[in-house]
Amino acid sequence: MSYEDFVEGIKPRFHETDDGSKQLIYEVESGLFKIACAHAAYNTYLELHSSEERPASAELVSKFNSGVFQKAMANQDIQGKPVVLIIDEINRGNVSAIFGELITLIEESKRAGRDEALEVILPYSKQKFFVPSNLYLIGTMNTADRSVEALDTALRRRFAFVEMMPNAELLGDIIIENINLQHVLSRINNRIKVLLDKDHQIGHSYLINVQSRRDLTHAFNNCIVPLLKEYFYRDEEKIALVLGAGFVEIEKDSFSVDLFPDFDKIRKPQYKPKLNVLEVPEENIIDALNQLIG
């Protein structure tokens, strides 16, 4: 997502003329953040004009641009219903480029109606823009994802952080053929914390909807095992330590030291058993998990 998608940008569209032909034109189009601000501002405006019928979203943005809601926003005693904008995996984007000059405006002290309230002139529409105090931004980020840059420092200090770790206790009531999924997830994550770190623990969402042996088999073969293969790339021994003997097999190898020529000062390679991570069939999943729990 770019600044143009998030705040506003110039977008092409076709306009049908009087003679029926289509003409390509360019218009300033509001992004998700600007639309959310318009809805939040209107909610506060409604506290003064409660009898007004709620207009369509496009009309809301137009009124927001024209400054209709500013009087309500300037009153610190008026607080409209909250509007929440959730940004999933906020650390995957170039946050500074997406927010642009609005990074300062999202601070609580710079919101409309506050003592240090700020406005900016947007670059495309040339309209005044402010961030209402009843707009709440929630960003999610996966700390295990090392392929993305750390969250921008300028944005980091404008958010409060709440760590949401996997909660195995939410699985306490899910028991499949005497297999308690809370115990399964706890055992897996305790091993991952030792072999890797706490940020790579398996989330409870993989197992929370499991209702049968088939669901359990699917969760491991299609979700949990592939994730562990990514975490422990080409390190089947560690995967075996996490999942137990029921999920791996020793590869049958015809390796022999006689395969290699003799040298006086070169030692021949020693045989080391290789492990293969299995796709456990449904009929064996319970036995495999019993071995995992130990």
Report on this model:
This protein is an alpha+beta fold and 294 residues long. The protein has two domains: 3-156, no CATH class; 168-293, no CATH class. It is 32% helix and 14% strand. The protein is built from ten helices and ten strands. It has a two-stranded antiparallel sheet. A two-stranded parallel ribbon has the order 3-6. Strands 4-5 form a two-stranded antiparallel ribbon. β4 and β5 form a beta hairpin. The longest helix is centred in the last third of the chain and has 19 residues, at 213-231. The radius of gyration is 29 Å and the shape is elongated.
The span between the termini is 47 Å
Side-by-side strand order of the widest sheet: 1-2
- By DSSP, the count of extended strands is 10
Number of domains: 2
Structural class: alpha+beta
Helix content: 25-40%
GO molecular function, one term: ATP hydrolysis activity
Protein name: AAA family ATPase
Pfam families: AAA_5 (PF07728)
Organism: Sphingobacterium paramultivorum
Provide a brief overview of the structure:
With 294 residues, this protein is an alpha+beta fold.
List strands and helices in order, with pairings.
Elements (H helix, E strand, L loop, with lengths): L2 H4 L1 E9 L5 E9 L1 H15 L10 H10 L3 H5 L8 E5 L7 H5 L20 E2 L6 E2 L5 E5 L13 H4 L18 E2 L2 E2 H15 L17 H19 L4 H8 L4 E3 L24 E3 L7 H9 L1
Parallel strand pairs: 3-6
Antiparallel strand pairs: 1-2, 4-5, 7-8, 9-10
